[in-house]
Design brief:
The complex is a heterodimer of chains A (279) and B (294). Chain A is 72% helix and 1% strand. By secondary structure, chain A is an all-alpha fold. Chain A is built from 14 helices and one strand, in the order ααααβαααααααααα. Chain A folds into two domains: 54 residues, no CATH class; 208 residues, MetI-like (MetI-like fold, Orthogonal Bundle). Chain B has 294 residues and is an all-alpha fold. Chain B has a single domain, classed as Orthogonal Bundle (MetI-like fold). Chain B has a two-stranded antiparallel ribbon. Classes of the chains: A mainly alpha (279), B mainly alpha (294).
Chain lengths: 279, 294
């Protein structure tokens, strides 16, 4: 803007900013606030809208106690276990491949890299049903392996690591080679310690992907022992005798457990994702 | 790229790429093959799998519910993709200028994307519940008639679009904001000195320079929306009267409700063909910028 923005213009702009923020945040606020409300109040003030709809008069942890007695602790353990194993093995495996695509020349490199790109442009959901056929044939249904193994290799993560490793000057690798370092040592001791932001972004992506997983666990692992967070909550909602308070408590827990790592790592995440996809 | 890469014995790069590539071949490529081959097989009453040629596909062509699902999926995508992109571009422009408090709003707009699609469905199913939900409570308090949202044949698809946009808009905003930030300020300043209005600058400068990020968001968003499943499964089950029966839900129903695996894999093949076309379009956008004369 060349002309000085008028008072009205600034007001309109902030009005719009606040309006959109309200639309986007109010549902999350209402969910979390309601989870601390006595059961009777949740829908009472949803139908009788006033200031009490947004400000609780009494706070209680009852719904969280009920939640802890249900299938939620098991589900949180399963989701966290699956996500942590995926992140640990996945980051290692995908960074190795990213390193090779950035640093080495080898036959069929372009073709294999195109395959990597295609694999992440076809979202996971598109292969859920045939993947189920595969897992069933291998008799892996209802196992942690079924929930973890298909999510380890990730084309987008390979791509992000490759972009990062491409940015390291060739002279650094040459110097290390002259000093007699093996490629394995170079990868592990030289490049990995430099790739903190990429590791953070990749870990966050794979963690969120597993934490948010719904369709695949619904199909591949339906036993109560293997229930994951998203499936547990969706199932509890469709029960005839839904305990709304406990449902609000579990949904709030699941939302916050995904939101906190995101808020901590969002700077890395946004920078890595936008810079990489811009190239 | 090839000029700076090192030539080493083949086994070294092989050892580095093997674990990840093996994973992609087994868990991405193999299922695609299974979908294509499986689309041509059927299961007899005795549970044997046998080759049935094009029968699954012929059955699909004759099946009114399949065509109605295709119609719903296309309508859904024709509406939701432009809508999400316009909203995301609007938000990106709203938080573009670094004025006071803008960092807070940027972060705030991203929060819904951290809510999983399954939880988004659960939350909005409750918010939009016709009799006890707070949205109708608010409408009544404002003296407006309450709506039936997901329970109404004419409103369900639009409601689904709004709910999916609530979750998705912040994510797409990131990419468009990065694109807007890359436009040199001098271009706008020079045009403004030449007397161009804000409206003219948007059409003549911003949009042409945003072609690449917009195209990227369009294809990536389309791929995701073609595969939307959780809200349909959790909230509407394809209803009322098939008005939200998206293709992915049809494939799921065929496999797990009708236990017709051939049909389900045939629908998966149709989905994979659509997604492959979108992915190839996306791949072209990943070419180096110099091949792309703007």
């Amino acid at each position: 803007m060349i002309a000085a923005p008028s008072f009205l213009r600034v007001g309109l702009r902030y009005g719009a900013l606040v309006f959109v923020a309200t639309l986007l945040l109010l549902p999350i606020y209402w969910l979390i606030m309601s989870s601390f409300r006595p059961g009777g109040d949740i829908f009472r003030y949803a139908t009788d809208v006033g200031w009490r709809t947004l400000v609780p008069q009494t706070l209680t942890l009852d719904h969280y106690r009920t939640m802890l007695a249900g299938d939620m602790p098991r589900a949180v353990f399963n989701s966290a276990f699956i996500a942590i194993v995926t992140v640990t093995i996945g980051t290692f495996m995908n960074s190795l491949a990213g390193f090779a695509f950035a640093v080495f020349e080898f036959p069929f490199k372009r073709l294999l890299f195109a395959f990597v790109l295609l694999s992440f442009m076809m979202p996971f959901e598109s292969i859920v049903i045939p993947l189920y056929t595969l897992i069933r044939t291998l008799e892996w249904t209802n196992s942690y392996a079924a929930l973890i193994l298909p999510e380890l290799a990730n084309g987008l993560v390979i791509f992000l690591f490759r972009q990062f490793f491409l940015g390291i000057p060739r002279e650094i690798y040459e110097a290390a080679r002259v000093d007699g370092a093996s490629w394995w040592t170079i990868f592990l001791r030289l490049t990995m310690p430099l790739s903190g932001p990429t590791i953070a972004t990749a870990s966050l992506m794979q963690f969120i992907h597993q934490w948010d997983a719904f369709f695949w666990p619904l199909v591949a692992a339906s036993t109560p022992e293997l229930v994951v967070v998203q499936v547990a909550i969706a199932r509890n909602m469709t029960l005839e005798t839904a305990n709304w308070g406990a449902l609000f408590a579990s949904a709030s827990t699941a939302v916050l457990l995904a939101m906190i790592p995101f808020l901590l790592l969002q700077r890395f995440y946004i920078r890595t994702v936008t810079v990489s996809t811009d190239k | 790229m090839s000029s700076t890469a090192f030539r080493v014995p083949i086994w070294i790069p092989l050892a580095f790429v093997a674990p990840a590539l093996l994973g992609l071949v087994v868990f991405r490529l193999a299922p695609i093959m299974i979908a294509i081959i499986g689309g041509f097989t059927g299961t007899s009453l005795r549970g044997e799998t046998r080759f049935v040629g094009l029968r699954n596909f012929a059955d699909l062509v004759d099946d009114a519910s399949f065509w109605s699902s295709i119609e719903v999926t296309l309508l859904f995508n024709l509406l939701i993709n432009p809508f999400q992109i316009i909203c995301a571009l609007g938000l990106a422009m709203l938080v573009l200028r670094p004025t006071r408090g803008v960092a807070f709003f940027r972060a705030a707009y991203l929060l819904p994307m951290t809510v999983s699609i399954a939880l988004t469905s659960v939350i909005w199913a409750i918010l939009l519940e016709p009799s006890v939900g707070p949205v109708n409570g608010l409408l009544r308090a404002l003296g407006l008639p309450p709506q039936r949202f997901f329970r109404s044949e004419s409103q369900a698809l639009i409601t689904l679009i709004l709910v999916a946009t609530w979750k998705g808009v912040g994510y797409w905003m990131i990419f468009l904001l990065a694109g807007l930030l890359a436009i040199p300020k001098e271009l706008h300043e020079a045009a403004a000195i030449d007397g161009a209005t804000a409206w003219q600058r948007f059409w003549r400068i911003t949009l042409p320079l945003m072609r690449r990020p917009l195209a990227f968001v369009l294809v990536a968003d389309t791929a995701i929306n073609f595969l939307l499943f959780a809200p349909v499964y959790i909230i509407t089950h394809g209803g009322p009267a098939g008005s939200t029966a998206l293709l992915m839900f049809e494939a799921y129903q065929a496999a797990f409700a009708l236990l017709n695996h051939g049909r389900s894999l045939a629908i998966s093949t149709v989905i994979l063909i659509i997604i492959a076309i979108i992915a190839i379009a996306e791949l072209r956008l990943f070419r180096p910028p110099d091949e792309d004369s703007a």
